[in-house]
Design goal:
The protein has six helices and seven strands, in the order βββααβαβαββαα. It is of the alpha/beta class. A seven-stranded mixed sheet has the order 2-1-5-4-3-6-7. Helix 3 links the parallel strand 4 and strand 5.
């Protein structure tokens, strides 16, 4: 798997489904100026996947308030995406998900992001936090049975925005509203002294 953190996120141009329509062309570049949560999942009409997509939808307003767009991506066709989007949640569907779902039917996007499963030919549960300039600032790749934590993604987005605003780094378990520290020895000592008392 490629480590993309600190590098420009690979560009893509693909079809996507959003609610009840097909988007003929969606690119990463069109999101410059926004933070992007690029969310790979294995397949439509599976089991862990709808729980994740709904969890991100439930937090959609929180991401929008942070100037962040969510984009889903799997190797399924846009027609499969549309069918899944039209399937009620109680039937295992993702009806009500509002953000776009990319069709990576040629598997090139998953390949470029290093999340294509080597034998199954589907995407692992990759998640990429991309900043407003198109730079990958965080990546996480889970194996197929392991769902992701939306609160942790929000926490990391808050940490990145806090760092960009204040220049302070965010220590372990940092949450919005807590103190950061200057990335110097003195900053660390001051932080630790405050924490220990």
């Amino acid at each position: 798997m490629a480590v993309l953190v600190g590098k420009s996120a690979p560009e893509f141009c693909a079809q996507a489904a959003q609610e009840n329509k097909i988007i003929d062309e969606i690119t990463l570049n069109q999101f410059l100026g926004k933070y992007v949560i690029l969310l790979f999942y294995p397949l439509d009409f599976t089991f862990v996947c709808p729980t994740e997509l709904h969890a991100f939808q439930e937090a959609h307003a929180q991401f929008q308030a942070r100037n962040a767009a969510i984009i889903g991506c799997s190797i399924d066709s846009v027609y499969s995406h549309l069918a899944w989007l039209a399937t009620p949640r109680k039937k295992g569907g993702i009806e009500g998900v509002k953000y776009p779902i990319i069709s990576d039917i040629h598997k090139t996007i998953a390949q470029d992001y290093g999340v294509l499963h080597p034998t199954d030919g589907i995407a692992l549960r990759g998640l990429f936090l991309i900043d407003r300039k198109g730079i990958v600032r965080h990546q996480l790749v889970n194996d197929l049975p392991l769902g992701r934590s939306v609160p942790e993604v929000l926490r990391l987005l808050d940490a990145l925005q806090s760092y960009e605003k204040h220049g302070e780094v965010c220590p372990a378990n940092w949450k919005e509203g807590e103190k950061g520290m200057m990335p110097t020895r003195e900053g660390l000592e001051r932080y630790v002294t405050t924490e220990i008392g």
